[in-house]
Design a protein that fits this description.
Distance between the termini: 23 Å
Helix content: 10-25%
Shape: globular
Structural class: alpha/beta
Number of domains: 1
Strand content: 25-35%
Number of strands: 11
CATH architecture: 3-Layer(aba) Sandwich
Amino acid sequence: MIDKRVRTLAEAVAGIKDGATVLCSGFGAVGEPVELLNALRDTGVRDLVCVANNAGTGDEGLAGLIRDGRVRKIVCSFPRTTDPHCFEAAYKAGKIELEIVPQGTLSERMRAGAAGIGGFFVKTSAGTKLGRGKETREIDGELYVLEKPIRGDAALCRADRADRWGNLTYRKSARNFNPLMAMAADLTVVQVREIVDLGSLDPECVATPGIFVDRIVVA
């Protein structure tokens, strides 16, 4: 019997090791798996590489991991959004490395990682500081930059509802990076508002099939 439910947040994040690359969903605080990230912080794991849209908000979730010195590097599009004081303090102190990736490129790099694509050329960042040191190619008279895929050792995601097989639905814009990240990691852990009986989810509303999900927990 397929049953991906776990009882506690601690069980959900068990096994994520020091130095792991962790994909963290969310658009700002919307769709961020705050409780899972807090549980990961409580394990004492260190030297993480976190991939996210932004570098955390306030003091909880991803921001809390950064505040407590658990994140070695952040790969994101918008390091400074609403209340980024934890990131700013760590960056000014030289305690965290930052890689800025344009938002569409970040999304496509994870999609490429999920699909087994070895790289792709994109015009975004060509001729700018973000494109320095990267392979370029002229295609039809325009300059393109080679971008490489991103895969995570783990993805921490947030959905609205799930069944025990791990099929997921999302609430409006809280969907954001969740489906891509769920596909692009070796271990996908999802916190949900509610777990429902098999057959209760409209198949047309399932944005992430359970094949991409390893653990689900109610938070």
